[in-house]
């Protein structure tokens, strides 16, 4: 990857609290550019939640101009309704990236934990603390934002691999 600067948008989707984080990498140096969560109140109709996710991610892309985005791979739930709602939020985030021409990659929860903590069985708090340390943050980010930053960090680690091992855009 050399010493060029690259920005990566990480997205941890959920209907009510989607985590977003943008990191900037220059060589092996990483820093957080922006992070937070897209909050949707409990009584808000799903269609409005999805629109908010779409618009916020679009705005983040326009403002920060990431070269690529990374999202957590689909997870399996015993509850079909939960899986469907999560799928809708993921599809909305992927569509926002696609509309802006930002290639998006997915990484499994296990590979994200492995890239950040060193073990795929890491706990959420361990991931959050390592994200804080890796990015030199003074405070531990809120959980959804920390997860999004971790996904971006995971993708950064993929970028330093040879092209054939980096994965394909979804």
Read across the widest sheet, the strand sequence of neighbours is 3-2-1-4-5
Question: What are the segments in which pLDDT stays under 50 over at least 5 consecutive residues?
Answer: none
Summarize model confidence as the mean pLDDT: 91
Order of helices and strands: EEEHEHEHHH
Counting helices, strands and paired strands, the structural category is: alpha/beta
Would you give the CATH topology? Nucleotidyltransferase, domain 5
Strand content: 15-25%
CATH class: Alpha Beta
| Number of spatially distinct domains | 1
Rounded radius of gyration (Å): 15 Å
CATH superfamily: Ribonuclease H-like superfamily/Ribonuclease H
| CATH architecture grouping | 2-Layer Sandwich
Main sheet record: 5 strands, mixed
Give the number of DSSP strands: 5
The gross shape turns out to be globular
The count of helical stretches stands at 5
The termini sit apart by 21 Å
